[in-house]
Recover the amino acids of this structure.
């Protein structure tokens, strides 16, 4: 069974260490690390490589760092909120799970294991697109036709169609709009606003 690395981002040392004590004893958890501010968050994520980040949503809400939401809601890990004060329900829906101060040990562990099981399922269902399939997916997301993609990437139309079939088979997504959403969610293309 996979061992998980958990990063807790919480300014209150009492809350962070208490949570660490509750979840740190599980055999499914390899390591738990706590940091008290977000100034080192990106650096810590790169060095620690967590599977799950548990963060106080107030950091995200009031952060002056514009890319904090992109860091926190990365598809590289699951994000849980530790709710220490009132947070709008709409914001809490952005998190995979919410730990509340009133939750007991059993409930916290249950929520955490639920996330761990999702992570295992996610890894089992992960699909690996080839570099060329990713290139074609990006062009599909941009709205190009098979012929336009073939001209841009210097491929035959039949080769583009074969790659599209493979992309559809691997992702189990048949529509262009669905593939576009998939490309956005997986960071292959950005939304230009």
């Amino acid at each position: 069974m996979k061992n998980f690395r958990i990063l807790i981002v919480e300014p209150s040392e009492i809350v962070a260490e208490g949570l660490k004590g509750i979840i740190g004893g599980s055999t499914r958890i390899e390591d738990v690390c706590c940091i008290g501010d977000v100034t080192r968050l990106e650096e810590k994520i790169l060095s620690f490589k967590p599977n799950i980040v548990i963060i106080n949503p107030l950091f995200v809400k009031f952060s002056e760092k514009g890319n904090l939401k992109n860091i926190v809601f990365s598809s590289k890990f699951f994000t849980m909120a530790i709710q220490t004060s009132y947070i709008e329900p709409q914001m809490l829906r952005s998190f995979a799970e919410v730990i509340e101060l009133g939750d007991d040990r059993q409930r916290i562990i249950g929520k955490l294991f639920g996330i761990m099981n999702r992570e295992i399922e996610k890894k089992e269902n992960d699909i690996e697109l080839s570099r060329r399939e990713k290139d074609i997916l990006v062009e599909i997301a941009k709205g190009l036709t098979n012929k336009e993609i073939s001209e841009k990437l210097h491929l035959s139309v039949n080769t583009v169609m074969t790659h599209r079939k493979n992309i559809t088979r691997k992702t189990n997504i048949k529509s262009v709009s669905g593939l576009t959403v998939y490309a956005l969610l997986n960071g292959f293309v950005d939304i230009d606003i």
